[in-house]
Structure formats: structure tokens, C-alpha cells
Amino acid sequence: MDAEGDLFESLRAELRRGALSLAVLARLRVERYGYSLRQALAEDGLEMEESTLYPLLRRLESQGLLASEWREEDKRKKRFYRLSAAGETLLLRLAQEWRGMNASLDRIIGHEEG
Known about the structure:
4 helices, about 110 residues, 3 strands, 3-stranded antiparallel sheet, alpha+beta
């Protein structure tokens, strides 16, 4: 990969990091275990590797934004995650911030393309 490709991938990863956190919080308004969360995000067009998802879930839980519990389902133990009360509050604020930034960027990028 050339230097421009490396730079693109680096900036792309930076863009995705915040967006994926927001998407995970939003999808966990409904309780899910890791694999089902990954599937739901993929169906929405946000593919995520397990090596990205599980550390993100642990970080969000350690920040008090998620709650989790181990349960048996289909004869297997699975860890189910859901938003905590603090997570719900923060999700509303982050979603509002995202919408504002997105609208601004749409205007800025639209002016550049036009």
C-alpha cells in the first residue's frame, strides 16, 4: 500500500472509531450478546471484527455505559449486554452531537463538491 493509502486507512479508522461506539450503544438499547450484536451491525452496513467489538464492549462496560450478565442459551453460556441508565443518557447526548456534526459536514462537503 502506498503512503496515500496508508493515510486514508489511518483516517478512516479514526472516523469509524467514534461511529462504531455510537452504533454499539444505539444497538444495545435492546439486549444482545456479542455475535448477535455483530450481525445486527453488519445488517446495518457496519462490519466489525470480533477483535474490535469485544474490547469495545469491555471498555463501554468499564465506563458504566453498559451492563452485562452471563446466561445459558442454546446450551451455551453467552454474555448479554444492554445499555445502562448512564448509557441511555449519554447515547441521547451523543446522537444529538452526531446529528449536528453530520449536518455541518454535509453542508461543508456539499459546498466543496458543488
